[in-house]
Each structure stands twice: as C-alpha cells, then as structure tokens.
Amino acid sequence: MTRLLLSLLCLWCVTALGQSVPGKYAQPMRWYSPRSKVTSANMPAFETSDYTRTYRSWADLANQTQQDSAQIQLVVSLDSVGQQADWASLRRVKRVQQLTLQLPPLLTQSVADSLLAALANWPDLTTVSLAYRSDGSSTQPTISGAGSAGLKQIRRLMLSSANGSALTGVRLFSQAPGIQELALNSIRREDDVVNMGNALTQYRQLRTLHVYGITPKIDLAPLLATLPQLTALQLTNVDQSGTALTQLLTQLPNLRSLSIGAQRNGESLSGLSLKSLGKLDSLGLTLIRQTPVSADSLLGGLRSLRSVSLHGVALSSLDWMADNPDLHAVSLQEGGLPPLTRSLSQLTHLSRLTIESFDTLGQFPEKLTTLPRLRALSIRGGRLGTLPPSLGNLTSLTALTLNNGRLRTVPAELGKLTALTELDLGSNQLTDLPAAVCQLPQLRRLTLANNQLQALPRSLGQLRGLTDLYVARNKLTTLPAELGLCRNLRILMADENPLTSLPDAIGKLDSLRTLHLARTRLLALPNTIGQLTALRNLTLSGGSLRNVPESIGDCRQLTYLQLTDSTLTGLPASFGKLLNLNQLSLGLPHLTALPASFAQLTKVTYLWLNVPDLLALPENLGALTQLNTLHVISRRLIGLPNSVGRLSALRHLQLDGTIDPETNKPAGQLLQLPDSVVYCKNLTTLSVHHQVNFDGADAIRKTTRLPKLATLDLTQCGIGDLADINWKEVPLRSLSLQQNNLRDVPEAILEAPQLTTINLVYNHQLPRAFNRPFWRKEELRVAFVESRLGGAPVADKKPDATLMRAFLSAGFRERQQRNWGEAFAALDNAVLVAPDSLKAVPLSLRAELRLARKDYTLAITDFEQALAAMDKLTQQVLERAGMPAADPMNRVSALWTQLGIARAGAGQHERALTDLDKALQLLPASEAMNLLRAHTTTQKARSLASLRRIADAQASLLKAADVYAAITYAGPSERLTEVELALLANQPARAAAVLEQIRKQTPNLSDYRGGYTTLFDYLKACVDVLTNATTPAQAPITLAEQQRKRPEKIYNWSFDLMETFLPQIGLPSDKVAALTELTNLTKRQAAVVD
C-alpha cells in the first residue's frame, strides 16, 4: 500500500487549469497572455513572436491591441484583480475572437457583472473557455447571468467542470442568446448534473454538446432531459456501460450527429444500441474495447447514416453498410475487418472508404470493388500482399491509398483507373514501378516513398499532369531524364536515396517549387539547376557535394535554402543573386569564408550557419536589415562586424563556439561583443555558448542599452567575475551563467528590476549556496543571507513572508536531494523568519519532514505548535503572502492525521486514535479528500491492531478499502492498496474481484513506473493461497519464477501493514507462513530509499 504522508505544501499549491479550444479561422490569430512571473531556471523567459504576445496589465493589453490588426485569442485571469480591476482598460481591448477566462476561487456578482459588461464591447468574440481556480471546498455564491443578455456574438462556450466550476460558467452566460455549442470537461458530482440541467433550460439555441470525462457514477439523464433540441452530441473519455449509454440516448430523438470516445481501460460498450436515433446521419465511435460488438445491436435499425467512423470497434459484420443506402463516407480503424456477405452495389452515394491498421487483413476485400461511385479508397496497414484484378472495376476512383502493407507489385488493371488523381503506394515492398502506374492520364500526386525501388521507369515522363512526386527512402541512384517531361511537377521529394547525379533534364521542370535531396550521395548539381525559375524551396545534404554551379543564382524565386553536410569549400559568387531568400541554413564544415555577395541577401530573416572554421562574418552583414534570427556555430569566429548594429529587426542572436571532441572543453575564440550590438534595439534573446575566454561582464553591461532583451545565456564561456555592472539598469528577466568559472556573485545583482531566474549551476568555485539555478530572485537573496551567516540561524531578521517562502523553497529542494541536514536548516530558518500569521506553514512542513525521518517526538511537538498557530492562518493571509489559498479545514484535518501517525510511531496509540478520529471529523465530504480519508482510516486500523483490537482494526481496514474504491480516477497504487486492505480484512473474494477489475481496466501495468506488475503478481499469489487456488507450498515457487522472468523495482510501497496484521487475523499457520514468504520475496524488489 502506498504510504501517503501528505505534504501541506501540496495542499496549498493545488490549482485548476483551463485550456481554450481554438477554432478554425481564415486568418492566423495572435495569442495574448499575462506575462509570466516565474520562468524556468534553465529555460529562457517566454518570448513573444508573430503569433504570441504577453501583457503586463490590462491597460498594456488594450494599448497593444489598439495597434494590432490581427484577430486575437486572449487569456485573462481574474485571480487577483477583484474589485480593483481596471475594467475600463479591459473594455478597450480590440478584436478578441477567443477568450480563456481564469476565474478566482470566489466570484462575486459585482465582478461577474463588470466582466460581462467588458465583454459586451467585443463584437468579434465567438468563443469563451472558462477555467476556475479552486480546491473545491469554498462555497461559490449563485451567480446571475442577466448581464450576458447583450452578448449576442458568442457561439461557443467551453467550461472546465472540476469542482463545480462549470455550473458557475453555465449560470454566468445563461442569458447569452446566441450560444449554439457547449463543452463540459469532467463532470464529477451528481448534484452538478441536476443543477446544470436546470440552468441549461435558458440555452434555447444550443444544438451541440460536448462532454469530456463521464464516470460510471455520473448520470447525465437530468442534464440531457432539458436539451431535447440537441442535434449533435460528443462524449469523450467515457467510462460507462453500453447499456447505460443506450438508455441515455433515448432522450435525444432529434440527434443527427453522435460521437463517443470510450476510455481505453474503462467500461466495455458492448450492449450499446443506437436504434432509437432514427434521424442519426453522422456517427463516430472511438477507442472502444476490442470485444466484438454485434453490428445488429449497435447499428441495427439505422437507415439514414451518411458518415460513419469506427475506431477500435470489433464489429461482427459489415452488412449494416448495405442497410444505409445514403452512406457517403465510412472509416474503419483498428477493430478487425469482418467478412462482407452482401453486395454493396446499391451504395450509390458512398464516395469515401477508409480501412486502417487491420493486421488480419491479408487479402483485398473483393466485394469493395462492387461500389459503383467510390471516389476515395484508403487501406493502410495490415498484411496486404496482392491486389485482385477486379480493382480495375473501381473506375470512379480519384484517390487510392494502399500503404504500410506488403505489396511487391500491383496488377496491370490499375491502369484502368483513369480518373485517379492521387495514388499512394508508400511504405510497401515495391522493387520497381509497374508500367500501369504510368498509364494514368489524370494522375497529379504519386507517393512511392519508403519502398525498395532501385530505378524509376522512363515511362514516368508520360504523366504530364503530375504535380507531386514522393520517392524518398528508396534505393534510387539516379532519376530518369524523362522526368523532365513532367512540366507541371511542383514538388519532388527524393530524400534518403543513394543518388549520385541528377539528369540535365531536371532543368526543364520550370514549375518545380520544392526540391528535397537530403541525405543523398550527390557529387554535383547539373548546370541546368538554374533553369528552375519557379523553385522556392531547396534542401541539399549528403556529404559528397563538391560544388554548387554558378547557375544557382538564376533561381531568383528561391526563399528557403538548406545546404548541409557537404565537402564544399566555397560558395559561388552568384549566391548573392538569390534576392528573395528568406531562410538560409548552411552546415558546411570545410567552408572558411562567405562570399562578398552574401550581404545582398537583404530579405533573409533566418540565418543558421554551422561553419566550424569560419573566421569572420562579412563586414557588410548589417545590410541584412530584415534579419530576425542569427545563429552562428564556429570555433574560430573571433568577433562580429560592427555593422551588426544595423540589424534593426534582429530578435534572436546565438553564437556557439562548439566543444572540442578530444578535450571536451569549449573551443570558441570569441572574446567580446562589438559595441554596436547595443543598437539592436529589438533583441530579445542573446546566447553565447562554449567560448574559451569570453567577456561576460561586458556583455551584461551592454544589455543596459538593449531595452527589450529578456534572456541572456552565457553558458560555458570562461567567465570569472561580474565586476563593474550597474545591475539597476539591466533589463533581463532570465540570466544563465552556468558552467563558468565564477568565484563570487555580486549582491547588487538583486537590484536588477525584472530579473526572475538566475542559473549559476556548475560554477564549482562558488559557495554551495550559489551553485544552483534560482527560480525566483528571493531564493538568491536567501543564498546571500546563508552565505553571510555561514548557515547560522537568522534570528536577527525581522518576520518576512517573502524570506520565509524562499527558505521553504530551499528546504523543499534540499529534501528532494535528500540533503536532510540542509533541509532542516532551511526549515528552521523559515520558522524563525515567519510572521506569526504564517508560522503554521513552516512548522507543519518541518513536522512532516521529522515524521518522514521517524523523529517522532520532535514531530509531535511541531505538529502541536502548527495546530495551535492555525487559527491565525486564513485564506486572506495566504493570498497576501502570495501563496495559493486552500480551505483551512482541509489543512487542519491533514495536520491531525499526521499528528496521529507521529503519536503511533512513538507508541502513543490511544492518543493517536483520538487525533485520527479528530481528523476524520474535520474532513469535508468532498471527493477530493478521499485519498486523505482513506489514509487516515488505514492509520487508525494500524493503531487499533497495535492495541490488539483486531475486529475493530479489520472493520477500519474495510472502511478504508471502501473509500479507495470510491476514488473516481484511482491509479494502480490505489487499486492495489484496496486489494491489500481486503486481504488483511480476511475478505479474499473481494480482493480477487478487485484484481480482476485491475486486469481488465489496466492490462499494461508495466507501462506505469512503480513496480505495479510485481505487486499485482504478489497480491494475486496471496489471494490464490487464501482461496485455495494454489497450495501454500507452490505459491512462493511460482512467484519467485515470475519475478525472475520479470524483475522490476518497486517504489513507494511499504510492507509493514501486511507484516503487522498477518499474524493477528486468524489464518492457519501454513497460510501465514506462505504469505510471509511471499512478502519477503517481494520486499527484495523494493527500491531502497533513504
């Protein structure tokens, strides 16, 4: 059983996150979100781009959107604004089309009304996604949505249902007259269903409902009963029986579209029947278990289906297709393909059929060739090795996909499919291209990638209408000259072939826009490459290319060029003629200089140069005034040209000196950034890596004149000091100085006004307090305090909530690293500097650590002091301190549980029972607290057993097992714990039933790290002994063999409960001996953790 010592820090850090669901729009959208206050210690701060923006305040947001012409997807948090919100600025925001709202734990009516009034000013708003930050214990007042009556523009509403937040959202927008689509995420409470059903009566235009996450305990009937007008229903991640869903669907007589996605390990949907949905024309069933489903019971009676998608549904037959003459599209994936016993010739409307991933499909289903109007046929996967001649009967086909099979050839009758425009024979075993393929006059797109083709036929030139040709990953050594006759070809993908040459005729492809020749063996390019006047995208790599012809400069429309891994020693002078080049990547290990004409590429926005021996960049580099990103990898580069200051559009600059492979040390020779870099006013990220002796302090000083620079990364640059820097003017939010030679850090670094993350890891000469990443500036401030005091207590410090939080963070980090002394020292300091109103926080965390270290006496003292201080700890106090607020009753009950555990550890079992009963009395009825309730009840059983009250102890174990069984989203640990408790309560039948349920619902326990397969085998062996399914003598032998074949470490599982109870529950001695041996065998697999 997992031994859960709940961390109060975890209780205080629970948040519910919402996620918007983007729609499809004709133009790209811009995403605006609040500027993050905390960034990763080893990741740069969040960067804006053409598609993303951040804002500091609503006024800043309004000003930005006033100048932005794009449609906007916006994230707005009301978590901390309340009555003081700048509603006037929010009303000024423009062009918001999608909104994600993060609501506070307690949404007041006044805030709700102000919010709705602001949204009324956004005429483009069509989609609202609502998230709600709460621990589920706060009582949310009933919100009136009268103010939403003016929101006629909103069409889609998406709500997170965790902890009842969906009900708040439904009420908030209940008067919005135009809402047609509603999405509900994870309804977990029965009363929410009833209340939501009542509220949804106001949604008279609602036609589409999407519900995500339906458990067996949730009955949607009260909700759906209020929505008879629904025409589309989507149920995702469903864990309900087919019978229950059948009854549910009878309430929706007008349903035309239905989609059901079952949990992979949830209830089987066998028994599901859709006969009551007489108007249904669109059906999608996904991830239903592989138990064969009767097609008659599932689809029998449906006669108006037009579109069907079945994913993972093992149907008993396909004859239902013949009963739906209006079928237009059918998709069958991963469920097994039953035989067709009836002709499909009457399906005159069926135009698209997809059959995918059926390993049992070894032959082409010939009855498919009777479909008279089939236009698109896709068969993917399986063991399809041959095709019947009757394939030629499908003369209406325009698209045929037969990939991921075992085809070695195709029949000549394929040539009869003269209407084909798309043919995909990729990922088969074709060794040559049949002549029949070259007889398809309408063919536009031909995919032959990932086969065994050694040559393409000369007759390929007959495909005069061909626009796309994919022949990557074959064995082609050349391409036929006749390919030049395909004058309409726009895309040629021939990557990963042993090509050594290209025909001169390739120059005739004057429509070619994309040419990919990556990882080939080309020795040269033909001069005719310059005749590709329409070429936009060119990729060349392979290691053997000796030259690029001057004619490349005639490809004037080229916008993307990647040229890597070749033996090139130079680039042609004509390179500068590629005036439309936008993105350029050069990976040329033998190049030493760029051509002088390089600076003529004035439209380049992205430049990546991996040129290890490059000595210098062109002096006129500044002419690339549209350059946005510059990344140079060179071990010999000694500087940047002064003209870099003219790169006014530059946002990202990275200079990498590489690592010497022999010494594993930096090889870069860059010494300093040019003074002119300060004129790159739009620079947001600057990275310099792997330099021998780079002047990092000078680089930081120069950032003071770069107002938009947010991230500076100077990794492994030989930096020894940070002297003479005016940190007050440094604009950075993230600074990485890892792997340098720093000996000290100036305390003035704390004066950098926006700096939040500082990474100093692997500066081994620094004091230990500094040699790590800092997530917040306050943590670095603590490091200075620790360094000055030499680890002594900070008793002279005044109470300081910020300092307390930093010490707590340091203690948590040291605990993770199992540095127990340092962890206790940090927590001691946190207690000393904590204000009286927050004293309960560090006291409880120190008590928890002492409990984990089995220092029961001191743990009891700390828990008692923490409980005494809890009266001063309120939600308001936590919020003012910047800590997530949770319900005080939850925190108090957790403390009483832990105090009871500590007393039991000290042998004070009677007092422990009193504490544990107190915890259970204080625990709210919320399902969110079930794990703590189960743990507390189990601990009570342990103390009862120690007092020899075995009957009471077993009754307590059963109560705990019942609570574990009631956890909706229980994982393997909780389910296996339920098995162990049932065993110790001497109920092996119940234990066996739970094991069977685990086997069905979680067939791949080995996918979960923790040793759950071994634990399953162990508990199954115990059950088998108690139920006489095996003998006490045989069980250990069998288990030992299982563990030998499948060794697996066990984590977070203790066997002491089994060892405590086993001798006391009245089992025969031979069975006690067998279970003891089984336990000892399995304990050997447990990971030893200090």
TrEMBL record:
It is found in: Chromosome. Residues 436-540 form the Disease resistance R13L4/SHOC-2-like LRR domain. It comes from Fibrella aestuarina BUZ 2. Belongs to the Tonsoku family. One of its GO terms (biological process) is chromatin organization. PANTHER family: PTHR48051, RAS SUPPRESSOR PROTEIN 1. Keywords: Chromatin regulator, Chromosome, DNA damage, DNA repair, Leucine-rich repeat, Repeat, Signal, TPR repeat. The lineage of its organism: Bacteria, Pseudomonadati, Bacteroidota, Cytophagia, Cytophagales. It holds the Pfam family LRR_14. GO terms for cellular component: chromosome; cytoplasm. Its main location: cytoplasm. Residues 1-18 form the signal peptide. This is Protein lap1 Lethal protein 413. Residues 176-278 form the F-box/LRR-repeat protein 15/At3g58940/PEG3-like LRR domain. TPR repeats lie at residues 893-926.
